[in-house]
Amino acid sequence: MADVNLTGMTTETRNEASSDLDIMTSLEIVTLMNSEDSKIAAAVGAQLPEIARAVDLCVDSLEKGGRIIYIGAGTSGRLGAIDAAECPPTFGVAPGTVVGLIAGGQSIDISLSADREDSPQCAVEDFSGIALNNRDTVVGVAASGRTPYVVGGLEYANSLGCHTVAIACNKGSAIGKLADSAIEVIVGPEVLTGSTRLKAGTSQKMILNMISTASMVRTGKCYRNLMVDVVQTNAKLEARAVRILMEATGIPEDEATSVLKKAGGSVKKAVVMVLSSCSPEEAEERLEASKGHVREALG
C-alpha cells in the first residue's frame, strides 16, 4: 500500500455540523445537505478569474485544431467523461474534440481497476492511446488534488507543451502546482466525511459546465444564447432545432421547417439564410469565412 498522507486536507476533514448524522431523521439529513450545498456557488465564484483563464486556454487549443482532454479517477474522472460525452450532441463538435479519460480507460464503468489511479505511468499510457499533442489542453480533475494518475498526466502533458488546467478542492494542491491554470475551490468538509462525490463533486460539475460551455460559445457554437449547432438525433431535438430557428429569426414554424430542410438540417446555416436573405451556398461561404460565428457571418 502506497504511503498516502491526507492530513490537513479540507476534503478529508470532519464536518462538525454532521457529527450526529447517524441518528438524524431523513428530513434532518437532507436539510443539512441542502444547507451545506448552498455554500458551493460562492466557493466556485471565488475562482471565476482562474476558470476564465482555463476557458481561454481551451479556446486557444480548439482554434488550433486541438482538443480539451479531461483526466481523473473515480467520481472526478466520471464527471469529466460525462461532460465530454455531452459536447457532441449539444454543440455539434466531432466526437473526440472533448475527451474524458478515467484511470482505467474511457468508460464510466465503476468496475474499472481502481488501483490505476495510484499510477502516474497509467496516465502516460492512456495519453499515448489518443495521441496527445501540444495543441491540446489537459484538464486534471481531482478533489484531493493529489491523485497520482492525474499528477502523472499533467506532468506528461507539460512535457509535450500542452496547456494544463487543474481542478481541485484543496488549497496548494499537487496538481495545482503543475498547471497553467489552478482552480482550487474550497467547499469545506463533506456531510459524510471524505465523500467527495457530494459538495466537491458538485463544484467540479459546475466548473466543467462552465469550461465546456464557455469554450464552445467562444468558438462560435451559439448565436445569441441559442444552440445553433445542436445535433438532431431524435424527435425532441428536431423540434428544438425548428424552435431555435423560429426564435432566432422570427419566422413561423412551417417556414422554419422548410428552410431547415433546405439548409440540410443545419440550424446555423438556416439562420444565416433567413437573416441575410441568401442561398444555402452563400450561407455556407459566410460561415466558413467567419469560422462558424453567426454574428460575423451576418455582418
Portion of residues in beta strands equals 5-15%
Mean pLDDT: 93
Determine the structural class based on helices, strands and strand pairing: alpha/beta
CATH architecture of the largest domain: 3-Layer(aba) Sandwich
The largest pleated sheet is described as: 5 strands, parallel
Q: State the domain count.
A: 2
| Fourth-level CATH superfamily of the largest domain | Glucose-6-phosphate isomerase like protein, domain 1
Radius of gyration: 22 Å
By CATH, the topology of the largest domain is Rossmann fold
Number of strands: 5
Helical residues, percent: 40-55%
Shape: globular
Number of helices: 13
Would you identify the regions where 5 or more consecutive residues have pLDDT less than 50? none
User: From N to C, what is the helix and strand string?
Assistant: HHHEHEHEHEHEHHHHHH
> Cα distance, first to last residue?
62 Å
List keywords for this structure.
299 residues; alpha/beta; Rossmann fold; Helicase, Ruva Protein, domain 3; 2 domains; 5-stranded parallel beta sheet; 13 helices; 50% helix; globular
Describe the secondary structure blueprint for this structure.
Layout: H1 26-37, H2 40-45, H3 48-63, E1 68-72, H4 74-91, E2 98-102, H5 120-128, E3 137-141, H6 148-160, E4 163-168, H7 174-178, E5 181-184, H8 199-218, H9 235-249, H10 253-262, H11 267-276, H12 280-289, H13 294-298
Parallel strand pairs: 1-2, 1-3, 3-4, 4-5
